[in-house]
Amino acid sequence: MNTDELLSKKLIIVTGKGGVGKTAVSLALSYLNARHGRSPVFVTLKEVRRGSYFFGFDTGIDSSESILEKGINAVYIDPNLALKEYIRERFVSLYPVYAAILKSKTLQTFFEAAPGLKELITIGKVWHLGTGGGRRGNSGPEYDQVIFDAPSTGHAIPVLDLPSRVLQMVRSGAFKSHIEWVDGFLKDPGKTAVVVVSAPEEMVVGETLELIDAVQSLGISVLFTVVNKVYENPFSLDEEKIIQEHNDRKESPGSARVFGLAKDHIDRAKISDKYIEKVRKRLDDRVLVIRKIYKKDLTTDDLNTIASGLDTQLSGIR
Amino acid sequence: MKNLDRLIEEKQVVICIGSGGVGKTTISSAVALEAASRGKNTLALTVDPSRRLAQALGLSRGTDSGEVPRKRMREAGYDDKGELTVKLLDVKKIFDDLIRKVSQSDDTASRILENKYYRSVADSIAGADEFMAMEALFSSYEKHSYDLIVVDTPPSEHLSGFLSAPLRLTSILDSKGFKSFFIMDRMSFGLTRLFTSVSFKFIQMIVGLEVLHDMWELFSDFEAVSEGINARAARAYDLLKSPSATFLIVTNLSEPSIENTIKWEQDLCSEGYGVEAIVVNRTKEINDTTGIKIFDEADLTNNTKLREKLLKLYKDYRHEADAEKKAMRKLCMRSSCFAVPEICSEVIGLGDLRELGRSLFG
């Protein structure tokens, strides 16, 4: 696996346990695209209002595709707007008589009430961004890659499974072929791959391994896992010995604090290694690592640093 | 408020909310264990405990309900005055049980439960998770067997999902537009109003006649049970708003989490819910005062290389801790806040939960 393999996909779905850093990794992958002269679109299900903190970007993200930063586009999917778009493009353009539907309260209600429809439209919109609308396009897709900052594990799996489940139900109708396109696209490893974001902790790694199994059993390819917030041990073995000695004897409170901190850190680094190993066992060399950044909130510089680190690791792999 | 003792003494229901990954399951387990330790017959409704935590809490593989062995509690340093039952929330099962509970007849219940559309998508309804957590809470409360119920909620980015899910679901099914849409002749699918026939044809074109038929059947049968669901939802809300219930908002100190927490606290309070406290989990504590030099760098060690590394490490941790301190002050202006420091241990067991509890209880 290498950078080319990553960049060759049309759709990267980034998922993982809540709080591990899916958004940061998704943005870093967008930066990675830009570094290689590609044109990515970052897709989120959370609207980013201007003024609220979002990695220090000076613009927000709304439902119209816009530039987040030079070379990187971003969009937030609003299912209601996506539904209207879908109807307009697929049906009203062919059957103008249905134009009134767009304002129909019945349709609105149906959409709200019909379970699963919102999620289906969302995944349909993601597909649309990745393919330029499939067979109907006169122009090809605008984006080289769609990076979908997907919901966390528990929500992601049902959503990824939804097209197949709906296909089992829908026996006829125009919708059926549309869902088939989406389902086929998701299950084509040449087009779509999942990136799982993990962290070196028991709960997270347990869920990561289950998630990899779940995605693969849906027939969707897992490209790699990124273990985030990893503690790295900067000390040599000799230095570790010295630190241990200092911890064993009585020190001034200040020194004790520093050596105590160092010892805790070494322990954390060892735990990190252990969990990375566990994930490597499952995915062989398809495991990338992001070291912990000692900040409360990341900035765009940090995202660039992360992108650079991922790039290096990907190029280093044979 | 110095600690959360009052919560255990006075409340019957505690709901822990917060974004994904902040530690709701850990905190709600710690609260439940402390309550049981103090003699309260406690129920912990949990969502996604890690396997080892689940085991530690008495949930063996494959089961969704268990009691925490008293011996284990004693070993961890707790008293075993009260009993702690732990239940895993299974959304689909709760939904099915609810349908059975509110159906007038077994026939209606089985028709709904076997309906193709229901089976395919019931658990993907947005807000279903939160709704079911509420339903599980309410059905446990109804039994009156517990002194305290601690609810660990599914991770939610939108509080509105939690608060409004039941109302949304039932009000949608009740809404005029929808009802009129489905007032149709069973045999011919004729409709009552002209404008809706275009919508009907359109929707039929999209999803196909069979799906529409399945949905129509589901919603017809559902109409019969929606009143029952509505009634239960209303009583669940009453419970949440009563003085017997309270909310804990669990969070970390990232900017987005702080923004969310402040907003949720405002939303909850304005809706008439009680927020007991904000629990800030996994704080980084260096435990010294900012700016004051606590050690003489030269005294640390003669080994220059090592000294450099130590100072860099210390600076990194310090940087993070300082940023958190500032954020903590901002967050805690309005509500009682409790900081639960990050513990070093790898696996969360009962002993660790007791350790965590010391930041919350007297």
Rounded to the nearest angstrom, the radius of gyration of chain A is 23 Å
Biggest β-sheet description of chain A: 8 strands, mixed
Biggest β-sheet: strands ordered side by side in the sheet of chain B: 3-4-2-5-1-6-7-8
Tally of DSSP β-strands of chain B:
8
Quantity of strands of chain A, as a count: 8
End-to-end span of chain B in angstroms? 11 Å
Helix percentage of chain A: 40-55%
Low-confidence runs of at least 5 consecutive residues of chain B:
184-196
Low-pLDDT stretches of chain A: none
What structural class do the secondary elements of chain A suggest? Answer: alpha/beta
What is the string of helix and strand elements of chain B? HEHEHEHEHHHHEHHHHEHEHHEH
* Largest sheet, spatial ordering of strands of chain A: 3-4-2-5-1-6-7-8
What is the percentage of strand-forming residues of chain A? 5-15%
Residue-averaged pLDDT of chain B, rounded?
80
Short description:
The complex is a heterodimer of chains A (318) and B (362). Chain A has 318 residues and is of the alpha/beta class.
Notes on the structure:
The complex is a heterodimer of chains A (318) and B (362). Chain A is an alpha/beta fold and 318 residues long. Chain A has helices at 3-8, 22-35, 79-92, 105-113, 117-131, 153-169, 174-186, 202-217, 237-248, 253-283, 300-316, and strands spanning 11-16, 40-44, 66-69, 72-76, 145-149, 192-198, 222-230, 287-291. Chain A has an 8-stranded mixed beta sheet with strand order 3-4-2-5-1-6-7-8, sandwiched between helices. The longest helix of chain A is centred in the C-terminal third of the chain and has 31 residues, at 253-283. Chain A is elongated, with a radius of gyration of 23 Å. The model of chain A has no long low-confidence stretch (mean pLDDT 89). With 362 residues, chain B is of the alpha/beta class. Chain B has 16 helices and 8 strands. Chain B has an 8-stranded mixed beta sheet, with helices on both faces. In chain B, helix 5 (91-102) packs across helix 8 (128-142), helix 6 packs across helix 12 (209-241) and helix 9 (159-174) packs across helix 12. Classes of the chains: A alpha/beta (318), B alpha/beta (362). The interface between A and B is large, with 72 and 83 residues.
